[in-house]
Amino acid sequence: MPATIVIGAQWGDEGKGRVADWLAAEADVVARYAGGDNAGHTVVVGDKIFKLHLVPSGILHDHVVCVLGNGMVVNPVNLLREMDQIAAMGVEVSPERFIISSRAHLITPAHVALDSASEKALGNQAIGTTLRGIGPAYMDKTGRKGIRAGQMLNVEEFADALHKMIEEANVTLSRQGGVTLDPKQVALDYIDAAERLRPYIKDTTVYLNTRLRDGARVLCEGAQGTLLDIDHGDYPFVTSSSPTSGGALTGLGIGPRYIDRVMGVAKCFSTRVGSGPMPTELHGELGNRLRGTGENHWDEFGTTTGRPRRCGWLDTVVLRYAAAVNGFTEMFLTKLDVLSGFDELKIAVAYHVDGVRYEYPPVTLAETERAEAEFITLPGWHEDISKVKDVKDLPDAARTYIQKVAELCDTPITTISVGPERDQLVYI
Ligand code: GDP
Ligand code: IMO
Ligand code: MG
After folding, report:
1. What are the C-alpha distances in Å from 198 to residues 62, 158, 229, 272?
2. Residue nearest to atom 9 of ligand 1 (CA)
């Protein structure tokens, strides 16, 4: 594998972190290419549970070099906190094995405050963002007035840029009746962070291309999910970056000729945090069963915000679309163990809107919001499958479920997981 991309096929939280951790064992470099600390990737290693927001899952393998690509937005203070937390759990996070693109954009307190103010102003139309400043940071990037990580290398230039950004944000914040920020304090905190992060900042584009040319195996770890993509998701209920496969190329500065594997990660039911359409959402008893009570660490409560995730049946309209948008060469199906215990399972195969049947999402958001899912019903199973290692030992109903999903998405499912731990995998 010269380069593999791991991508969320739904609305995020599909289990990309655990899949990237599994593939990282065979990789030399693991690179994040989009988003920021809105992501929350949980990886279980023995008795340790890592909750990674910015640092790629590859950090948990000693031989791997990790990269934060140019397509990301990085909050330096939160990054340092995460690096310290991981280091306290016994993982080395040195500049030899962790590098940050000089072209990645920085999230400042201005962006965080503007994210909150914007959500507040939207009232019941709010997007339900993670309030990490992601949208405003990408707005500054595309508005050509953002601050890039490389600017941290020159203290004076960095302090001036920060000061200017905070003063400008204060004008907007006070107009919206929000709390304004102290530019001097922000500059002080961020200059401290810049001093610590300076050794990690590099031209990661040159680094990645050199490594690829020399035969290194690169794993591109996606964040968020296809339906949260700024172009391909349920706009405006999306994040502000490109989590899809095209985003991996621009977000790392590598060419398509290196990519030979595009792995879509799909949870075997649907979850979503935040607002936006979700035609298979279940309210009541069934939704609560899929979500879990919060007792297990894998139950459906956000890694980043702790919010309960909306839950529903698997939606193959979404998966079919994700397979097309990203060009999946295969899919990895997670959390099959959670489906044990249902008498029957439903899978959405199409939507109906105003008398028209859709096998891909309809054109407008308003139509998707009105969409009624057409389901097929499959038999469930009651066995505990969390210890199954061989596909032959899965109940017939579980094998039928997997086959049906692959068929409906016209994409092979090559691996499934039956629990959050590293070895809870079944190869198909
Ligand atoms: P990501 O953002 O795509 O990396 O996914 P998250 O880490 O936010 O959410 C996935 C959750 O499911 C985490 O708590 C994982 O530990 C857990 N998980 C992943 N795969 C499985 C699985 O096969 N079974 C169970 N029960 N939990 C899983
Ligand atoms: P991982 O990588 C699930 C959602 C937010 C909100 C929308 C916009 O863990 O899968 P933002 O803060 O990005 O402006 O919020 O996107 N969102 C996620 N949902 N998993 C994520 O990341 C998400 N990152 C953003 O809930 O609906
Ligand atoms: Mg997550």
Report:
1. 22, 12, 31, 36
2. 13
Give the tens place of pLDDT for each residue, 102-141. Answer: 999 999 999 999 999 999 999 999 999 999 999 999 999 9
User: What distance in angstroms lies between residue 12's CA and the mean position of ligand 2's atoms?
Assistant: 7
Does the active-site annotation cover 13? yes
Does residue 161 share a domain with residue 148?
Answer: yes
Q: Residue 20: nearest ligand to its CA? A: 1
At 132, list the tokens.
Answer: 């990490």
Q: Which position among 13, 28, 140, 229 bears the catalytic label?
A: 13
DSSP letter, residue 411: S
Q: What are the angstrom distances between the C-alpha of 410 and each of 168, 180, 328, 377, 405?
A: 50, 52, 10, 19, 8
Q: How far, rounded to the nearest angstrom, does the alpha carbon of residue 306 sit from its chain's CA centroid?
A: 15
Q: CB–CB of 5/301 below 8 Å?
A: no
Could you tell me if 223 and 85 lie in one domain? Answer: yes
Tell me, what amino acid is at 94?
Answer: S
Helices 155-175, 183-197: axis angle to 10 degrees equals 140
The domain tally of the chain equals 3
pLDDT over threshold 80, residue 379:
yes
Residues 386 and 294 in one domain: yes
Q: What is the pLDDT of residue 317?
A: 98
Q: Name the band, by pLDDT with cuts 50, 70 and 90, for residue 237.
A: very high
> If you measure from the C-alpha of residue 269 to the centroid of ligand 3, how many angstroms do you get, rounded to a whole number?
15
- Closest CA relative to residue 100, chosen from 66, 129, 137: 66
Q: 15 CA to middle of ligand 3, Å?
A: 7
Ligand nearest to the CA of 43: 1
Residues in the chain: 428
Residues 275 and 332 in one domain: yes
Whether 393 is catalytic is: no
**Are 392 and 281 members of one domain?**
yes
Residue 177 above 90 pLDDT? no
